[in-house]
Amino acid sequence: MKVVVLSGGVGGARFTRGLLAHLGPGHEVSVVANTGDDVWLHGVRVCPDLDTLMYTLGGGVHEGQGWGRADESTRVSTDLAAYGLGWDWFTLGDLDLATCLARTELLRTGLPLSAVTARLARRWDTGVRLLPMTDTEVETHVRLLDGTLIHFEEWWVRHRAALPAAGFEQGGLAGSIAAPGVVEALAGADVVVLPPSNPVVSVGTIVAVPGVREAIAATAAPVVGVSPIIGGAPVRGMADACLAAIGVETSALAVARHYGLRRDGGLLDAWLVDDADATALAPLRDAGWAADATATLMTDVPTTARIARQALALVGLDV
Ligand code: FO1
Q1: β-strands 39-41, 44-46: how paired?
Q2: Looking at the domain assignment, is residue 152 inside a domain?
Q3: Is 157 within the bounds of a domain?
């Protein structure tokens, strides 16, 4: 079976790891990753969501953090801070820096990000085809209430999204084109999954790449999403701050409606919510959604595999 997952960082990576555990061998999983969090730091290109996916699926992630490398050290970033350079509130570990150095070296040879990503991912044996959403350099900035713009990572990491945001600016996005393989993967998919990633800055950014939303609308594959909101709150991260910035209520029902039903011009055919949000089922089903509720907290790989199985079953795929 050909599966396409549109993923941000931690939530999408953990979901995809469970999906692979559920599917077992013999299936083709393509992961289209958000690159709006990317940033140039100390002269190297940092791609947080691509690296979280690569490390999580490759068995090298710092499990407790959900990002960065296991067994990490921070000698270089500490010494860089001594020079007063970089972001001292953003910990780029020594091993993580190796990935970014390798990426930068390959980018400087003229390779597009998609080719660089494939080259780096070979070492990690991720079990998926890891695709950036676009080869065009895109960066999400947050517009604060006073009109100033800061990089998404500064808002997210330095300020923990506590500074109210008036909106998001995504330089480069409007003129970008989907990376090679993205539209083809969506067109040829048997199922497309929107995992519990940030619906605004992760999934929202991916589907804003010209051509992606159209490819989702056109694919013969069913499209199923898993709610990132449990009981009116995001599981981790600060998706509620992002949803507030675009005027969407932090609820499983509101996020479904934000994504929209595909036959009404939206993205999804089906929506899997947590048991805590079972009240969302009736209005969704009345509106024509395939919808179900289950325990959606991804506590470990077997649990996540079960959630992935239920998501696929919601669109009639029992593997
Ligand atoms: N997240 C943090 O909360 N603190 C950090 O210091 C931090 C450093 C960092 C370095 C490289 C990288 O690829 C990711 C990093 N992240 C850090 C995670 C990152 O903010 C998130 O993975 C995404 O950008 C949001 O989902």
Answers
A1: antiparallel
A2: no
A3: no
Task: Look at ligand 1, atom 2, and give the residue with the nearest C-alpha.
Answer: 157
Which residues have CB under 6 Å of ligand 1?
8-10, 37, 46, 48, 51-52, 67-68, 90-92, 96, 153, 156-157
- Whether the predicted model's global pTM rises above the 0.85 cut: yes
Distance between start and end Cα atoms, the chain: 9
Model confidence pLDDT, tens digit, residues 159-215: 999 999 999 999 899 999 999 999 999 999 999 999 999 999 999 999 999 999 999
Give the whole-angstrom CA distance, residue 198 versus residue 242.
8
Distance CA 210, CA 56 (A): 28
pLDDT in tens, 209-244: 999 999 999 999 999 999 999 999 998 888 999 999
CB contact set of 220 (below 8 Å; sequence gap of 6+): none
Q: Which residues, at least 6 apart from 264, have a Cβ–Cβ distance to it below 8 Å?
A: 288
Identify whether 156 is part of a domain: no
CATH number of residue 296's parent domain? 3.40.50.10680
CA 39 → CA 31, 36, 96, 187, distances in Å? 21, 8, 14, 30
